[in-house]
């Protein structure tokens, strides 16, 4: 192609000048153009990222407004502590060391009261202990002559820092004073080393400790007075919510299996969400542990005393996770490729649904017990109901076995087997999915009893009161059981009609 | 009882004096005695606690000597940074701000390289950013008149602290710059506020940044040169170990069920430990996530490049947890109260054991693939083997179904059913446990394929090499499969003889 006939690729910008003629705007070519493009790309990319970030931030804020309150609390505490710089009399009192108060507020202010208290206590104790020890070591070092002083100080820093670091690696110590050990190392090396130069050691120690106490007291005041979030309360609610989620998952799991083309199609999305609820239980171990850990630092609040048995909540959580593992296995049954024979499904649906509904009622009642902190005698009733449902399911499974040898069917069983006569030609492969589901359901019922035991232990150690309106509740629950039975029967009949 | 005839309760201490007579040592009574007892109790209690602590510490140290090395490293880094105080020329260079270097070492030094780098980067960036911003705000505030200056400063502290705190609550930001945001708040409030009093603001900022850089460089040098522990390498090993544990659990689970009174009685404790291996997989989610998070800060090391796909390890971990849920259900089958009929066990044991052993071989081969970072074509062979074992198990299950209707048994099936002729009187209830176990085993095989996919994706994105000695390995693996089949046949025969 000749150079004169180059085809101009791209858009041509033309501007009409006042006299009617038009001028072509020559685009900035080469380097400038490329740079502009890169910059434009960068800016739009950055803007998009910022926009996405803000959108996510808004979603987080809308989802949990307490996070926004926490941010405001941090700002508030910091602004108050800044007053020490701005106001002459306060500044004169603590001098340049006011920075320690600012630093304390920044590092100890956490979302929950328990965590803040844990950090405050650790900071104060670590600072005190390390300060005393450092002064002692300093006194000893100063007696050992000018030549050995740095050696003694260096060796003590090395040894104590190593020992304190090691104590942080011990899991049981970690939960109690991990932060304190860090503050210990920090203060010790700081005081021991700067003591070698700064001669007003006691003044320094006094100022540092008083500023830290100012900072921690301010944090404690703000965190406990402005919309406090208690670790213990959070743990309590988490356990209650997880129980409800477990019950929902179990319900949806069973009904979806036996009632696949059923009425619940328009609320399918909601059901999907409920079905996934057990995953929250599976993944909440770390949260539960840290909350229980911080909960024990909290003073009496709401329904909870100072020494509320938070550890017991962990046991409840662990037993719930055991149930959740089974529900996971159950949910894989739903998605299994091996389809079960409809006739077997029909035969077992009633008792399976009864087991799942009575199990979920038991879990819900446990959630209610934990939530209201009132002992409930209905739990025993519901567990009894659950066990009799399990028994019924086992009988139904047994009645299937007469299919193997119809000749052994006793007279009284004839009636029961009548309805499954049609299934005698069903291959065992089509039994297996339902049978597996049934035995997982039975296992879940067994595991729920472990949850019941854990909750009862909590009720004992936390001295739950006895529910006053027990009797009305008992009759209500009996009505509920009857109505649920009718509902299940209805479903089963509908299934048999299909 | 008369006061003169009081029976002396407790031990009487007598001392024989030189002249042969003896004197009764009257015990210190009342308050002194009680106090002594309390003190003695306290001291012995404390001594016992210290002793237990030391014992636990020793166990931790013996279990993982790298923890001790980490402690020594912390001590070393702190001692080196202390030199800034002890040595005149260095001290003159940075002055009293040397404490920032000490503080940096204490707070950023973590056990793994990744975590230390993360904290170093965050500390440096957070300090820089906040410093610049604070100086800017300070300049603006100083222009607004003496009266408004504290107001502007206070408002800026409030707003920026709240915003930075909010960014810490965003999960995706948290993993990337949680620590940096805290340092940002700290530095900003510190510089902005003290700038109001300290007029040599730039000097302060310069010294603070240089000391922080000294501290972080020292940390990076010590952590990377003295026995470095890499987060990435740790994650890599954790995944490999977890795979091996999963395979062990699966093996022990199946053999224990089918070979309860078998030969492995004297190594029972070891088998118990192996059986519990899957629990490590269940509980390692948080560890995996934090390691993957820190791994991306690490430079190229060992077999890993800078941008090694650590996130992919999380996917492998998640798919392994799905297997572990099933193994949990499997292990509950072992402890189930419903005993299965021995005849059914015998009939299915061979194919069940084959599924479990081929599944565990597949997992072990995956572990080997990840460990050596070499693609292996044997995995496909083993997965094929696993699938054919699953097919065989399904056929065996199907063959059970002919028990329902012996009349439909085709000629070619007669031979197969011959061996289970005796079971025709077995009630279905005694089928259920084995059938449940079998279907869980099949589900495990399905989930292992998800692990295979995840590992293959890793092999793709991390560009694993192709194994050179593949052919010798293939023939080896074929021999192994044959020998395992012989072993299982032996076990089955032994079982049938019982």
From TrEMBL, chains A, B:
Q: Which GO terms describe its biological process?
A: malate transport; monoatomic ion transmembrane transport
Pfam families named in the record: ALMT (PF11744)
- Organism's domain of life? Eukaryota
Q: Which UniProt keywords apply?
A: Ion channel, Ion transport, Membrane, Transmembrane, Transmembrane helix, Transport
**Does the record carry ATP-binding as a key word?**
no
Q: Where in the cell is it found?
A: Membrane
A single GO cellular-component term on record: membrane
Q: How does the protein's chain sit in the membrane according to the entry?
A: Multi-pass membrane protein
Coarse class of the primary localization is membrane
Positions of transmembrane segments: 67-86, 98-118, 124-141, 179-198, 210-231
Family from the record: Belongs to the aromatic acid exporter (TC 2.A.85) family.
The protein here is known as: Aluminum-activated malate transporter 10-like
Q: Which organism is it from?
A: Durio zibethinus
